[in-house]
């Protein structure tokens, strides 16, 4: 029986890399987004609004997926609004698919805010969680749209008889233009601006992040993890952390990133220097750089998400993630984090998005 995948959020880092992996493995692959028309051989794009049930019903009328991969979210001004909107997106999709009775497995991508708290209270809710973060750690007693999304999946799984998996990556490193959480590309753009203007490549975050241990998730590893969980008996109805498999300290990695771009690395100097402030006036500078080098995206805001990078690098604790649960079940993929960044930078340069 053919495996038919529906990737929700195809234009994002996770969704686009997942679709590439599915197509490579021979899946029939549909990609859903409001504007899904990305160039990918073997992908069948679907335009639909997750907040519009009529739009979803019309777009999915002839599609009966066996596996659904939900990688999308919308940022709102408060966590209460995040909960209302992002839970509705999951609920509307599963309600639209329910009459088909085709779905065998639903994979939901969330993240480490499951353990750290939402953006409004990011690691500041009165305690610091134990690290490495482990899947058995309980939910926080605080509003969190990840929990609301999970609950929608759990309820629909009982109603419709499919299995599920929840995937919790750390910061995802990979290419996507216009993504709301894009640390790798944000740092690449910042480094390119530093190179062109002669400014130092200043670490923007906290002392805890500079000196402490951390990890990240390569989008390609996350894609393999999603496919693995959706096709592995022992991985059904489980939540999983997913990271590269190595640990690093930013004080080790930062100079290496600077060397790749040929800029001067400046480390933590006892002051958090938010990147959102550092590049606040650089939109005209970036436009000039793109014109000079013939780059394809002159809009700085479509490449850089400084607010998210500041949240990640400004946390008051070191953050690393335990992968034992997946390893015990047979998922053994590993990715060098240094190479994750360098591969991304090379791709961005090849695609004429950075000089």
From TrEMBL:
Q: Which InterPro entries match?
A: NAD(P)-bd_dom_sf, PRISE-like_Rossmann-fold
Give every PRISE-like Rossmann-fold domain span: 66-355
Alphabetically list the UniProt keywords: Oxidoreductase
Annotated signal peptide = none
A GO molecular function annotation here is: oxidoreductase activity
Oxidoreductase among keywords: yes
What top-tier enzyme class does this entry carry? Answer: oxidoreductase
- A Pfam family that this protein carries is PRISE
EC annotation? 1.1.1.-
Identification of the protein by name: SDR family oxidoreductase
Taxonomic lineage is: Bacteria, Pseudomonadati, Bacteroidota, Cytophagia, Cytophagales
